[in-house]
Amino acid sequence: MKNLDVNEDIDLGEIKIYPTKELEQVLVTGNKKLIERKIDRMVFNVEKSFASSSGTALDVLKKTPKLKFDGSNIKIIGKNSVKIMIDNRIVELSGESLINYLQSISSEAIKSIEIITNPPSKYEAEGNSGLINILLKKAKKDSWNLSLQENLKQSHHTSSGQGADFNFNKNKISVSANIFNNFTFSDFTNKINYYYPDGLWYNKFNGTDKSRKPSFRTNFDYKLNNHITLGGNYSYSQSNFIGKRNSLVDIEGNKSYNIIHTPTLIKENSQIHIANFHTQYKIDSIGRLLNLDINYISFNNEPRSMFHSNYILHDQIVDETDVAKNYLDQKLENYSTSLDMEHPFSNIKFNYGGKISFNHVDNKYSYYILNIENVPIPDTINSNHFTYQENIESLYVNTSKEINAKWKAQLGLRMEVSQVKGISKTLQQINKNSYIKFFPTAYLSYTMDEENVISLNYGRRIHRPKFSVLNPFKQYLTPNSYITGNPDLKPYYTHNFELNYEYKDLSVSLSYSRVKNEYTDVTLLNTIDKTQVSTQLNAVNSSTSNLDIFYLFSEIPWWESNNEMNLQYSEYKSDNPQIGKIRNMGWLFYFSTDNSFYLHKNKNFIFNIKWIYSGKGVDEISKINSYQSIDLAFRMFFLQKKLQITISGEDIFQTNKPKYTDFTNSIKQTYSWYGDTNHFFQISIVYKLGNNKLNLGKRKLGNEEEKERIN
Q1: Of 326, 329, 463, 485, whose Cβ has the fewest other Cβ atoms within 10 Å?
Q2: Count H helices, E strands: the chain?
Q3: pLDDT of 213-241, one tens digit each?
Q4: 154 Cβ neighbours under 8 A, 6+ residues apart
Q5: With left for phi above 0 and alpha for psi between -120 and 50, is residue 130 left, alpha or beta?
Q6: How would you classify the pairing of strands 481-484 and 532-556?
């Protein structure tokens, strides 16, 4: 028997098996690195990280290198919005709906996360800064395993999560299933200041949120013969949410009233169904593969809110609004089919295929005023019925070639044809748009030696408006503040360039992105009636340059350190008359260090400390202050590592408090948010059992691919 320590691809040569010897088993294993680099992506192996016991997929993403969570969106550090994939399939959700879905996935079910800043043409062109691909665990050949997980989270309130993850693979059958229930109970504070010329409006929102998010997912693959594998998967997740809001607006310079007090109650129920059928046809032994995927997504959401406002002068109520109710019935359906062909030749590889996707969104927004008998009276002026249809047909081709031992190249082109139609039935308003766009990609890498690799890539991407921000209905938060969509929004396009250098465990990346007519969140302020309107406008041209350095230190057996530094220079410019002239240019610095200390020779006791620091600078059209955070964790393994206990704390000194400042028509606004999702202590228990020797059958194959944009 010969043991090999494999840290990279190697040629094992010819393995000879002599007929006079009975072969029991040939086992080839590799010890994966925490971070792996490929020509078009970075792979974070969650199983080797502290993130594996962090509770949910959202918690794992918050601990993934190169990513950050700003309270409502997952972003690549130094870049803007990205799309989320599960097992190579786009998640057609966004905003709060996407966050809820990620919180329904157990961290124990995740194998690895791929950060793809310039995706190949095989993937959708959606997501101006790239894709995040979450790969779920599957059973190894001839084995079964079961993981049980319990998480207990403590901040102002107690939250919890329980789940079980099962995988089975034997002969021709591969099955996996996961059930998870996540209960969250948290507080937050949101502070917004509007500096009107005649006085400051100081807004303080306190909120308490409760939600229960049960979920179930299963996957089945069957190897029909040596050429054909059939499979399917289904997932269901639900969110039952209750939120209490208390808004207090303190006004300077108003003689009629100086305080507006608005308590609000929100109830929301949503369900997500995701189904997929896939088949893989292995045409021959040289690697030609044909993959077919048929996908369906259904999302139903029913938020209900009720509020009333008191106008107060010197602690006396001088006026009171009628009680108002907001109802939204939101439905989304997505049907898609894709066909993908992997077609290698002797010296070049081709990958080509196509996809068709149909989205239908139906939003019914109803606004009611309650009379003195608490009977709801419809307010037809503020109610709205909006439908949206989006069809996308795409074709792509991708080719890659090893020019010689040092040079590798990859080229791709994707064509997408889009037809969109938005109808406001209440306003009798129809918006149509159709377009054909091309999205090229290119990669070139040069291997100087085994330890030095240089690569260059380019990609063009598109970012389409989220479905909800196209709806022109008004969702009132207070009598003076509401959110409204913009049906005239247009998609915008990004050109991304990257130059990467890899040396052992050091990675250096230079990138540049340019966007024209980008749409962005803005708050329009009226100086006369003091209304605040949150909406989105195609208003900004931007360019961003990034220097990103990542270094993994593992020279000392008992210490592993992951370090990242990002230096960004960006320019955001706008001449839009609705928000005024904007010239926001400057630097932004970010640094993080994640350190694991092994306190036992078998690595059964591990202490982890992570520190992040972000300097003040430019964040899109806003200025941001500096902030930092320290996370601590201690992990213990027992019973031959079948039992895992992790005790952790996030932002233990409560210093992760970014504050944003921007201007609309020269009126200053500041915004800050902090909540229990930033600061908490957690204990996580995972128990694993299984059998890796069901019997030594033949090798099995699996396959996958789709879902993103709703709220």
Answers
A1: 329
A2: 2, 39
A3: 999 999 999 999 999 999 999 999 999 99
A4: 680, 681, 682
A5: left
A6: parallel
